[in-house]
Amino acid sequence: MESNSKKEKSLVFHWKRLLNYRAIVRQIPFFLFLALLAVIYIYNGHLADKTAREITRTANELKELQFEYKDVKGDVLKRSTQSELIDAVQPLGLKELVTSPVVLIDSAEGE
Questions:
Q1: Closest Cα partner for 96 from 105, 83, 111, 78?
Q2: Cystine design at 89: which of 22, 36, 70, 94 (Cβ 3.0–4.6 Å)?
Q3: What is the pTM of this model?
């Protein structure tokens, strides 16, 4: 019984010794270190979220640009067909050549 009360008293004394002013002041650098680690941890989480949002935004922009490229490419291919070219230049007064082209030779070069 007596040893039990001694243990309790020593436990209480141990806690009182740990929680006195001097002991707490000595632990301030450690608490500051823990606070710094917490700030770094929070910053790292925010940075990861920001990077993930940026990756998603860039991926969506890339998809839009790919669709636009395919649309423009299809337009160009359609407009470059012979029948479309004929229709496009008709208002300018140009017509499709029906006969084969004539090759002109400069007589001055032959001398």
A1: 83
A2: 94
A3: 0.54
DSSP character for 20? S
Amino acid letter, residue 97: L
CA 55 from centre of chain = 3
- Give 73's pLDDT tier (boundaries 50, 70, 90): very high
Asked whether the CA dihedral 20, 21, 22, 27 is positive or negative, the reply is positive
Q: Specify the number of domains making up the chain.
A: 1
Answer whether residue 72 is part of any domain: yes
8 close to 16: Cβ distance less than 8 angstroms:
no
Q: Please give the structure tokens belonging to residue 96.
A: 């499709």
